[in-house]
Amino acid sequence: MSESTPGIPGSGGQIGIDTWVEQSDERIERRGGLAGQITRIWERIPAAGKLALLTPAILVPFLPFVSEGNLFNYGLFILIYALLALGLNVVVGFAGLLDLGYVAFFGFGAYIYSFLSGTHTNKGHVYSHHWDAQWSILACVLICAALGLFLGSSSRRLLGDYLAIVTLFFGQAFVVFTNAADPYGITNGSNGLANVAPLTFFRGHLTISTTRGYYWFLLGCVMVVLVILYCISESRTGRAWKASREDPLAAEMMGMPVNRLKIMAFSIGAAIAGLAGSVFAAAQTGAFPQNFGTQVLILIYAVVILGGTGSLTGMLVGAFVIIASNQVLDSTSPPNLARVLFYLALIAAVFITMRRSWVKMLIAFAGTAVFGLVVHAIVDAVWSRGTAGQVTSGGFLTGVIRNWVLLPTNPGRLAVYGYLLMIVCVVIVVQLKGWWRLIALVPTLYLTAFVWENLLVQNPAVTRYVLFGALLIAVMTIRPQGLFGTAKVEIG
Amino acid sequence: MKSALGQRLGNLGGLALALVAFMFYAVYFSPTQGWTFFFQLTVNGIILGSLYALIALGYTMVYGILKLLNFAHGDVYMIGSFIGFGVLTLLGGPLNPAIPVALLVACMFVVAMLGSGLLGLAIERFAYRPLRDAPRIAPLISALGVAFFLENSALLLFGSQFRNYDGFDLISYNGIYLGGDTGVFVQYLGLIVIIGAVLLMLALLALVRWTRLGKAMRAVSFDREGAAMMGIDPDRVIAATFFIGSALAGAAGVMFGLLFSQIYHLMGFLAGLKGFTAAVVGGIGSIPGAMLGGILVGLIESWAKGYLNGNVSDLVVFGILIGVMLVRPSGLLGTPALQKV
Fold first, then answer.
1. B280 at the A interface (CB within 8 A)?
2. Which of A147, A278, B106, B292 has the fewest Cβ atoms surrounding its Cβ within 10 A?
3. Is A419 within 8 Å of B155 when comparing Cβ atoms?
């Protein structure tokens, strides 16, 4: 470990008092600029006030540009993933356990709801229970909590990585169970369960079947869960979780029942996932095995990691950013939207890496523009096929792209090499410092645009997963606390 | 308290007993009884197991030195397989290769091993090195990201269709029969795989035991800070470990392609899980343990396929994984971990 603590050199200090740690709060207070200002205002808002900031979301369905489909694709998914992230946050953020089988609880919730409140026939059995939603949702939550108890109890003996692999296997086993095993036809194999009843409470006196209804119901769920989790995290249990996350051994020495705390975290997380799953099944009137694969798991993790583990606000913001971009990059949404998002993300990335110096940032953008024009002109003169390709659904950007990005008529292999070269370039850019980095950045940006236009834009659905994978690595290495998590005060 | 050696011998004795008992059941009492069937499955299992052993070595080396579960290892194996395929296609494909077959296969192995080794280096440099002193959970999440990144990059670059190595066209369908014309059939390809895997493992053992690098690796794995104080550069040793482990995975990828012909972008996930199972069963951190565990997992999978049914073989393997982790987390040849206060 390093001897010196970064901070105030030569400040001396008394024996037994770590000045740097003690002044951590003051340092945050002192942070200047707009960011510091916003942080300070944000910190000063009480928790109830923060929750109140969420209330305008009730009005979202009335906005003129929000259609029924948009509300389903964006609103419902963001809220469902926010719920899932809040649940996973209990396990990963509060208790510090890596649960890679979390998505199975989501699946269990959806399947149990579909089974109890739907109709299906398979292998000669007819399942038509049609329970009221309040009972089947309660059953989902309770069964998932029990399953979480079961899975969590394996964490008594398993530490860190072993726990991760056992939970990963649990998730895989769930997919096998629904897909292939299918005892007595209760999961209907790979066809999944369709014909699920909408949320029908109290023998039909209250029915939620419209997208708006689901949106409001989910928003209510998110708020209730937020309040509950806030209370838990500020309680004795929440503090004990954080203590056992930081150092299980020390926590145990202080008399905390570490094992019970872990199992509890698993169970609460699973219960929230069950709730999310049941509403999800009702909203899409079905539950299918492919809804609960590894990709969903990565999405939830991306939300939690970007938002900042341990922060409730972070989960909502993370869900908004990740799920909105996930849906924009879906193959069914208009491709030009994906393009705009991609370039915006690229610009934002440059913005963040170059935020120290406006001059460099300007040079980077201008240099890339000029570089592109020059390369385009040279290739146009030398090899005319290199610029003769078509712009894939360019929208209002068609003209710019055609005259700036190289578009070979048959990019296939060139695009693949471009992709590999792009990865190498990114690697180089990260290695370099100062002006060299700027010089390397310009062709890298241009190459990224080339790869996007020739390869990625045709496959936005795959691209998004590549990006989320890269995001997990980048957040972990650059800012492990995510957007809203609190950076740890390390005692060196 | 029993000595560590005594415990290992006890484990091995118990294992041998279980295997003999299973053999008797399989040969005399199972519905598909008979020596030939049993030994045919056993041979297939050993061939499969040597692949798993090669993958498990990478896991176990990295775990031994960094205490990190490298989720991306299975995907390095997949990339190695694709690199081998690329070399094969560049040199004319399996039907009319541009250079002699032996040389072609050697080329595939060398390039794939180098390529995956470099990939391993890059992964270590970018995803794990910045997190050396972070909490345990951070590199795991980063590893998850790497795995996802590699899988989807492969999907993007190579598409979702299967690629065919056509290993049998390259090396022929022939093999030898052990014990007469109705005896156990061993393909030449299988033999090549076994011999190749054994050679690589011996080379690795020699490297770890007798070279300076091996000594440094053992030292860093034992106590990183202590090794650093003795003048060993831990970063360099860790990078070398990643290179070697990933190169072995690349070799396993090419072997898989030659044996089973079809490769695709998701093949790394399951193989990685099984390699990890092998590493845990053998005792994570132990190199001979990884070899033993690999062969065992291969055997169990092959037997489960033969005597039970193809769908449940994976479930059996993972059931064993969970059982071993719960009952004997230190595995067959590992040393029980002491928790330092």
1. yes
2. B106
3. no
Residues in contact with A476: Cβ distance below 8 Å, sequence separation at least 6, in sequence order: A305, B127, B131, B134, B138, B139, B141, B142, B145
Whether B134 is in a domain gets the answer yes
Contact flag A476-B134 (C-beta cutoff 8 Å): yes
Closest CB to A473 among B142, B156, B329: B142
Least confident residue range of A277-286, A295-304, B320-329:
B320-329
Flag whether residue B34 sits within 8 Å of chain A, measured between CB atoms. Answer: no
- C-alpha to C-alpha distance for A236 and A219, rounded to whole angstroms: 27
pLDDT classification of A13: cutoffs 50, 70, 90: low
Lowest mean pLDDT among A223-237, A373-387, B200-214: A373-387
Q: pLDDT tens digits for A227-239?
A: 999 999 989 999 9
- Measured between CA atoms, how close is B92 to chain A, in angstroms? 18
Q: Mark yes or no for CB contact B153/A459 under 8 Å.
A: no
Q: Nearest-CA distance from A132 to chain B in Å? A: 36
- For residues A464 and A332, the answer to whether their CB atoms sit within 8 Å is no
Residue ranges of domains in chain A: 13-38, 45-328, 338-458
DSSP assignments along B126-140, one per residue? IIIGGGTTS-THHHH
d(CA A158, CA A148): 15
Tell me the whole-structure pTM to 2 decimals.
0.87
Residues in chain A closer than 8 A to B134 (CB atoms): 476, 480
Tell me if A456 and B137 make a contact (CB, 8 A cut-off): no
Instruction: Number of A to B CB contacts under 8 A, please give it.
Output: 123
Cα A296 from Cα A102, distance rounded (Å):
10
Contact B273 A169 (CB under 8 A): yes
**Residue B182 lies inside a defined structural domain of this protein:** yes
Contacts of B280 (CB under 8 A, 6+ apart): A162, A165, B293, B321, B324, B325, B331
CB B256 within 8 A of CB B81: yes
Q: Is B145 on the interface with A (CB under 8 A)?
A: yes
Instruction: Give yes or no for a contact between A104 and A144, defined as CB atoms under 8 angstroms apart.
Output: no
Is residue B152 less than 8 Å (CB to CB) from chain A?
A: yes
Cβ(A171)–Cβ(A101) below 8 Å: yes
Q: Which domain holds residue B238?
A: 36-327
Alpha carbon separation from B52 to A177, B64, B117, B246 (Å, rounded): 25, 18, 18, 13
Across the interface, whether the CB atoms of A173 and B146 are under 8 A apart is answered no
- Contact state of A419 with B142 under an 8 Å Cβ cutoff: no
B322 to chain A: which residues are within 8 Å by CB?
A: 154, 166, 169
ipTM over 0.90: no
Q: Is residue B241 part of a domain?
A: yes
Q: Cα-atom radius of gyration of chain B, to the nearest Å?
A: 20
Widest pairwise Cα distance in chain B = 63
Distance CA B248, CA B80 (A): 9
CATH number, residue B84: 1.10.3470
User: Is residue B91 less than 8 Å (CB to CB) from chain A?
Assistant: no
pLDDT digits (tens, 9 = 90+) for A304-357: 999 888 888 889 999 999 999 898 888 777 777 888 888 888 888 888 777 777
State chain A's mean pLDDT as an integer: 83
Residue A456: list chain B partners with CB under 8 A: 156
Distance from CA of A171 to the nearest CA of B (A): 12
Average pLDDT over residues A75-93: 93
Range name among A52-61, B65-74, B199-208 with the lowest pLDDT average: A52-61
Read off the pLDDT band of B1 (50, 70, 90). very low
What total of structural domains would you count in chain B?
1
Taking an 8 Å cut-off on Cβ atoms, the answer to whether A160 and B136 are in contact is yes
B152 with A466: Cβ contact below 8 A: yes
pLDDT score recorded for residue B112? 95
The tens digit of pLDDT for each residue in A173-209 reads 888 778 776 677 777 777 888 888 888 888 878 888 8
